Amino acid sequence: MNEPSTLTAAAAAVAAVLLLGLVVFQVALAAGAPWGRAAYGGAAARLPRRLRVTSAVAAAVWAGVLLVVLRRAGLDVWAPLPDPWLPAATIAVVAVLVVACVLNAITPSRLERALWLPVSVLLLAACATVALTA
Predict the structure, then answer these.
(1) Angstrom distance (rounded) from CA 82 to CA 32
(2) Of the N and C termini of the chain, which has fewer Cβ atoms inside 10 Å?
(3) Chain-centre distance of CA 17, in angstroms?
């Protein structure tokens, strides 16, 4: 792997911290933490079983996204996709994050909006930077 530029490395670091936080949050929800008011529209403090399963799957997906973004940024980490797929995968991540920004902006949960809208905007900017500069 080539050494990433300073901008790419900084964007990857920001993305890594935010994605790791998102993974930890989803794992906690899956384990039954009473943080449901900050997720899934904020309908319940403790998520029902099906949303806990959804959070477990989401945690695994976001962990995979973390590895893809770091690998695309030039870090020597394992990624769940082959290297030739990483540019397209990173663009797909950016597209998903655009949708996440919209959904976090329109959620009925004030807590979810206050917490996850800024995170999703920062994550979008960091992943888009990696996608465009790596």
Answers:
(1) 34
(2) N
(3) 10
Specify the residue for token string 């290297």.
83
Are residues 14 and 122 in contact, defined by beta-carbon separation less than 8 angstroms? yes
Task: Please tell me whether residue 6 adopts helix, strand or coil conformation.
Answer: helix
How many residues in the chain? Answer: 134
How far apart, in whole angstroms, are the C-alpha atoms of residue 32 and residue 45? 9
pLDDT, one tens digit per residue, over 9-60 is 999 999 999 999 999 999 999 999 999 999 999 989 999 999 999 999 999 9
In one-letter notation, the amino acid at residue 62 is: W
Answer left, alpha or beta for residue 74, where phi above 0 means left and psi between -120 and 50 means alpha. left
pLDDT tens digits, one per residue of 50-88: 999 999 999 999 999 999 999 999 999 999 999 999 999
